[in-house]
Specification:
single chain; about 250 residues; globular
Length: about 250
């Protein structure tokens, strides 16, 4: 297995960040310490409409930084769309792109696991979403339990049954071939759900990498949780309005 799944794929690691000067250095250092040949991956930070030191700290930490300013097309989905176009225009090519949030930490073996799944022929792979702060408050504990159950009782069984999993917003990998084929264009408030729908409509599956762990920071207060959930509900409603008919036709 070690020979079959030896590091081969070249990755572009993308971190979309809006005013994340307090945490951006941690994710960049986490990615620089991955147990994968450094010549086979590059770290890109999209400093999206930032007015703090996010770009400066990311550069000092070792990332390649692209600064984006657009007051009309705001949000992670637009930032990723903008960055994908820049990646495709580069002379340097990548086999796959991995997407992370600025407040994440990543397990050292993340890219080894993603490389393994890509070598198996999987083109879209979601990693295990864990919590970075499960014991900070009752709210963060509830979030952590929900994600642990989702990983074990939803994502992993679907993978074993040969069904499509779901993209979780961070810690996922997409082959550049798929991105070029169907495009990104997932720019609503829940860009992960929108892109998952686009993949389903294109007849593609999302696979699972149980040992590729990403530690995501969960809300601590009820107010933070409500703000996040409200945004997610708005995004889900938007996706339902735009794609429900197409999904029903696909199902039929």
């Amino acid at each position: 297995d070690a020979e079959i799944f030896a590091p081969k794929n070249r990755f572009a690691l993308l971190v979309a960040a809006h005013n994340e000067e307090l945490v951006i250095g941690n994710i960049v250092r986490s990615l620089k310490n991955l147990d994968y040949p450094s010549e086979l991956y590059d770290i890109y930070v999209i400093a999206d409409n930032c007015n703090d030191n996010t770009a400066k700290i990311a550069r000092e930490s070792g990332a390649i930084v692209y600064e984006r300013f657009d007051n009309k097309k705001r949000g992670k989905g637009f930032a990723l769309q903008w960055m994908f176009r820049k990646l495709f225009a580069m002379e340097k090519s990548y086999d796959a792109v991995c997407v992370f949030d600025a407040d994440n930490l990543v397990s050292p073996g993340f890219l080894k696991e993603m490389n393994k799944q890509l070598l198996r022929g999987y083109e879209v792979v979601q990693g295990y979403l864990d919590s970075k702060n499960p014991f900070d408050s009752l709210i963060s504990s509830c979030y952590a339990i929900t994600y642990w159950l989702n990983n074990r009782l939803f994502q992993l069984p679907r993978y074993y049954l040969g069904l499509s999993c779901a993209i979780g917003g961070t810690g996922f990998t997409v082959s550049t071939r798929v991105l070029k084929e169907i495009g990104w264009d997932a720019t609503c408030l829940t860009e992960d759900l929108e892109f998952t729908i686009k993949l389903v409509l294109a007849g593609k599956k999302v696979y699972w990498a149980h040992n590729a762990v990403v530690y995501d920071e969960k809300p601590i207060t009820l107010a933070q949780s409500w703000k996040q959930r409200k945004r997610w509900m708005q995004g889900q409603a938007d996706c339902a309005c735009r794609y429900m008919k197409k999904l029903l036709v696909k199902f039929m």
